[in-house]
Amino acid sequence: LYDVLHDTEYRRKWDPNVIETFDIGRLTVNADVGYYAWRCPKPLKNRDVVTLRSWLPMGSDYIIMNYSVKHPKYPPRKDMVRAVSIQTGYLIQGTGAKSCTITYLAQVDPKGNL
C-alpha cells in the first residue's frame, strides 16, 4: 500500500478522479514536491495542488505527510481552482504479512465557490 501511494503513474489506474499527477522534484531521500489535479463533480471547477510530501518508514509502519507549497514553475492554472493542503497524510500500520490498517487525515481548503 505504501508503494502504491508513492507511484504517480499507477495512481492513474486506481484513482478515477485524477486528471494529472507528477513529481516536480526530489528534495531529500524522504521528501519531494509534486503536482496533483483532480476532477470535481459538476458544477464545481476541478482542483489542483502543489505539495511538499515527506515520508518515514518505521519497521512495518509508514507515515506519509504533505502540505501545500508554492512553486515558481507551477503557478495556479486558469482552468482550475488551486486548493490548499493544510496538512494531509497517511498512517499505514502493518497488521500481518499481507495486511495493514490505513488512517487518512485531510485538512484541506478547497478554495473557490462551494
TrEMBL record:
GO terms for molecular function: lipid binding. Pfam families: START. GO terms for cellular component: cytosol; intercellular canaliculus; membrane; microvillus. InterPro entries: START-like_dom_sf, START_lipid-bd_dom, START_lipid_transfer. Residues 1-114 form the START domain. PANTHER family: PHOSPHATIDYLCHOLINE TRANSFER PROTEIN, START DOMAIN-CONTAINING PROTEIN 10. This is STA10 protein. The gene is Stard10_1.
